[in-house]
Amino acid sequence: MNAADIIKEIEKLPLSERISVIEKAVRALRQEEDSRQMSRAARELQEDYNSDKELTAFTDLDMEDFYEPR
Known about the structure:
Elements: H1 3-11, H2 15-51
């Protein structure tokens, strides 16, 4: 099915369902773009995290027990 066929099918739907389809499509596109941007940012910063100990200083505490005072 191509884009023109999809649009013809969407046009057959009641207005509220057409709006819902469009909203879901836009939401999916935004999520996909957000994911792509986050992946790109993570790749760009990977070397910084590997080489700059100040960025990862608190991870030295990850294996230590944490006790909350009473």
